[in-house]
Amino acid sequence: MSKFSLYPVTLDGSDTEAKREEIRAYFHNTFDIFEKIFEVLKSDEVFYKKSEPTRHPMVFYFGHTATFFINKLILMKIIKERINPEFESIFAVGVDEMEWDDINGTHYSWPKVDEVREYRKKVRERVDELITSLPLTLPITQDSPMWTVLMGIEHERIHIETSLVLHRQMPLEDLKEVREFNICTHTSAAPKNEMIDINGGSVVLGKDKSHNLYGWDNEYGEFSESIDKFKVSKYLVSNAEFMEFVKDGGYEDEEFWDEEGKKFLAISGAKHPIFWVLEGGNYRYRALHKLIDMPLDWPVDVNALEAEAFCRYKSKKDGVVYSLPSEAEYRLIYEYAGLRDIPDFHESRANLNFYHYFSSCPVDEFGFNGIYDVVGNVWQWSRTPIFGFDGFEVHPAYDDFSTPTFDNKHALILGSSWASSGNMIMKHSRYAFRKHFPQNAGFRYVISSGDEKIENDIYESDELVSQYCEFQYGDEKFGVKNFAIECAKVASKFAKNHTKALDLGCATGRATFELARSFDEVEGIDFSARFIGVGVKLKNDGYVAFASKTEGDLAEKKKVSIEELGCVAVKERVSFWQGDACNLKPNFNSYDLIMATNLIDRLYNPRLFLDSVDERLNSEGFLILTSPYTWQESSTKKELWLGGYKDESGKEVKTIDTLKEILGKKFELVHLQDLEFVIKETARKYQHSIAEVSVWRKK
Amino acid sequence: MSKFSLYPVTLDGSDTEAKREEIRAYFHNTFDIFEKIFEVLKSDEVFYKKSEPTRHPMVFYFGHTATFFINKLILMKIIKERINPEFESIFAVGVDEMEWDDINGTHYSWPKVDEVREYRKKVRERVDELITSLPLTLPITQDSPMWTVLMGIEHERIHIETSLVLHRQMPLEDLKEVREFNICTHTSAAPKNEMIDINGGSVVLGKDKSHNLYGWDNEYGEFSESIDKFKVSKYLVSNAEFMEFVKDGGYEDEEFWDEEGKKFLAISGAKHPIFWVLEGGNYRYRALHKLIDMPLDWPVDVNALEAEAFCRYKSKKDGVVYSLPSEAEYRLIYEYAGLRDIPDFHESRANLNFYHYFSSCPVDEFGFNGIYDVVGNVWQWSRTPIFGFDGFEVHPAYDDFSTPTFDNKHALILGSSWASSGNMIMKHSRYAFRKHFPQNAGFRYVISSGDEKIENDIYESDELVSQYCEFQYGDEKFGVKNFAIECAKVASKFAKNHTKALDLGCATGRATFELARSFDEVEGIDFSARFIGVGVKLKNDGYVAFASKTEGDLAEKKKVSIEELGCVAVKERVSFWQGDACNLKPNFNSYDLIMATNLIDRLYNPRLFLDSVDERLNSEGFLILTSPYTWQESSTKKELWLGGYKDESGKEVKTIDTLKEILGKKFELVHLQDLEFVIKETARKYQHSIAEVSVWRKK
Questions:
Q1: Interface list for A 127-156 with B (CB within 8 A)
Q2: What sequence ranges are listed for the domain Sulfatase-modifying factor enzyme-like (chains A, B) (predicted)?
Q3: Do residue B244 and residue B353 come from a single domain?
Q4: Contact between B190 and B296 (Cβ < 8 Å)
Q5: Which pick of A398, A516, B322, B695 has the fewest CB atoms within 10 Å?
Q6: Would the ipTM clear 0.85, i.e. be above it?
Q7: Residue B491, domain member (yes or no)
């Protein structure tokens, strides 16, 4: 690695072959850096340790960024063949603490690290081939197959940043020096912070689809806000500045902490920032892989709850209200600083992209027009919960990248850190984390009159999820009964044993709850975390709100509570998980019932599911399928349809006959019936379908 | 014009600015040639004459190719403003003799030619601007806005070819010499024709969407055929060779003519080819703008019926069966000739693209591997009726370019002529005309064992039209009555006078027939000739066949007759026309009833229709609207929706309220009701909607 980290490639240009070479270099550089940072783990044994109990062991992340490429390429039908189906199920889900991301490692036997290394090599070769051979026109747009490759690269860049946090949390004895990872070596007294005036103005956030840099879904669209003048701290809060708060007993004084903050203190037992280490009455500082004397002029690393507590403490002390900057205020700070977006911005001007250090550095080292570290050094927590701009649309390859975080619980982090690269150092990027989550993040404060954003219920802005909420929790129409309830009734009637059931393709989870009336335990699995979130919210928060379309863009707001559903008593029986029905994790097994409602004609390869579903059922287990058999090429390539075509001899092939052929060896078909369902599009337009319900008893 | 006609531009390349310049040059060249060929008309008065009664006057075509650009750009929402709404309605429809193309010139007062010249100038400037400014990536694909510009250019190229036929049909005293239009000056004795052996083989017709030349919808997809060896005539049939047929009384002998041929003879009174002129017992030859002595070695210009009659005559004489070549046989002839597609093919090698002459030339002048005029000189009639290849899809900008000709009545013409340029000289282009239609076309004959293609019913391959046939003529579902019948009942109940009704947005025409039960005259108008064709076929052929989808690609074939509908007695009361509800021709007026079912939420600008609809109604006339108000951006830009959004003050705007506001000045709302309708997608999936029916009486 001569130059440690390359800048991201632009989407435009005139020479496709040159662009392929740029992408190839950027891809290998990303893969290289990712593997390099795992060299800090002392031995292969360390890969099976966790840096904290709520996260996966290291080996998961090591496999995850490679499987991500394959899973997304399969999903987008760019490639047909998996490289290692088992790896691609167990390494599949790696999101920030979400209830449905199964982090219980005892559920799997993790593979050998060398096997994962071998696997990574194969993925690297496959992606390299695709970079050479995929159709490519410039500019690369969101529907280009190359976009999925760029998505894989940027996803890996995120994990470079977050893995470095995890590594930094590991015990020092598990780590070793890596020559290239140069920790900044200079420090002196911290400068005294002061406030800078920023003029108000109109801010337009969001970027256009024609922008020439890759973006995640949450970056596109438009959002305007008018901001009054405000003041902002010249420097990030240094370890020295934060020390006053710690020494004044800030972590012990409840008045500085809100409910979420108090919960964090109770669970973590924190008395000081996570990377401070108390040794002999003095605080030392944990860098990536070593302990050093406290660098008082470096930024403090804290989570959002700690940053907010500091603001309350300082407000009380100074008699002025300090808060974290909002997303729109930060844009005015960015403009005040005269910053420009990459590639016009040169990385030498800030502590980012691994250009200077593998650590933070003094808060007065990189200034822009008199204000310091507007980008780089550490991320800066904002008070703005992430939300979708007007015109927000998910990308089909990753429809749950952002939407599960639009829950008012995920705060945006601004700027970037020493460990940021790729999309993260772009002007328009937007990342958000739970407020208790450790990151390479600190903060600066503002004095502003800005109000907090009004909280929105997340599903009101997600049309497809809202449509499913209406389908599963809304009103009946044309005299057709609630489909989820009716399916659960059929299932409960036929099932022999009622210990454990699986609702596969559970969508917003209604049938999962309904099955729990007669099963001791019900797991709901869906491919998309967008949908799962509804069931989780009902279980945890006791309600879900959504918008039911009436005419054009107009909608009626609706709210359903767990009490109304009569499911309070059974809610602890249900759990929701993210999973791919065509490549389910091995731990999903031992069911008395597997119900797949309106799933088989939406799978990219339904045979993969049907061929082995019997193995997940107990003896005397039942499989229940429902489907209107509406095959469509956008979900399933025509050669993988189970019916709805003529075979080579010209004979019509019907889905039910193919089901009998595939399932007949291992199941007996015991019941077949039609069941209507109605999905509302508007108050005057409905999809009215007739599913075929087939009930199969395992032989 | 230094070089008379430029080659078409390729869709690919690496430099977008250079491509814009290529397109610009090609566009102006096309516009120039088109205007140049009208210089042959002696004076502006001649523009108001017709070359034959079934066609429009010349001024129509002169305006038509320019309005085509604007109408398609509006339809595709690439531009918002019309240049001249009146011109863009009266010059809108210019297809080959179709019943719904209103060619009765007394219906309009045509504008001055100078006004049309001025209009053409404005269109030229507007398109030139767009060529500079439209988003452009290479290769240009079918969804690129530039595709619509290329479509306009290629459409004009077609009219260059067909207008030259019309001009050649005009009386000589209406024409003048144009210096650049050089008629070939050499001729000698015709060579004796002979037969060449062509090896059989497998032929794959159709081109891929990635092909680097513009194509019309009918060129894409794939069609394979296995062809036995056959023989083909070395030369096109010359005037000399055809003379034997004429002199032997071929035009008088019914045995050589089929039913369609006999009808042609009866109507036209033809005794010889159209461009032969009998003077003093001798045949002379009509070139574009002069009469010359019969060039015996030039190809004869005939229609397909005359060509077929000649084949029957020659078969009888020689005792061998001659026929016209099929499309697939022609491909083997093309390959035998060693031809290559443009731009690799050089235009100097054949009589096309105006490179040599503004006329035909001897049949033995341009040879390819021993066979002559495989491309160029005159088109060659084939025995193959045009049809859609597997994978056929209409282009949204011109959904009725081909489908109305997939009726087994339109025969393909092969090769190209001296007047062909642009797409017409490409290998993959496919044009078809009615068999009695004059073109710059002749023929060559084959001796082959090939069977005729099996005839298919056209609507069985058109999914959307089939879906509408099922909706209007198929079975009822969920107990919901036939919507077209119910709407017609409401209309008949409210209307006061029953002389003339308009069914606007008539689709496949069921309501048009139903209204005819109580109205003396009913006009059905739809934007797309694809749909209108169903009503026309029912009226003329007494039946229509379509395919009703069951599962996936599988469908049930259905056939409905005019007898079953009980409409035999009223069918003469209905007529169908192509038209744009937002820019209707002035002659559509004086109605007692205008009914627009499920139309307003599919218009690109519904206010344009509503603002002036009262002017087309008689006093005491009624307007009936039905709609589920399912606004969608693909049909109507959001700023033109009539409802389904919030206004600037945040108030919800509903469609019915906007209708009351717009129509309230001129109409009284006398009735409002809901009416359900069901559209079948598959046997298990339906769209189930609830239209609002509003009945408005003109004040």
A1: 137-139
A2: 193-446
A3: yes
A4: yes
A5: A398
A6: no
A7: yes
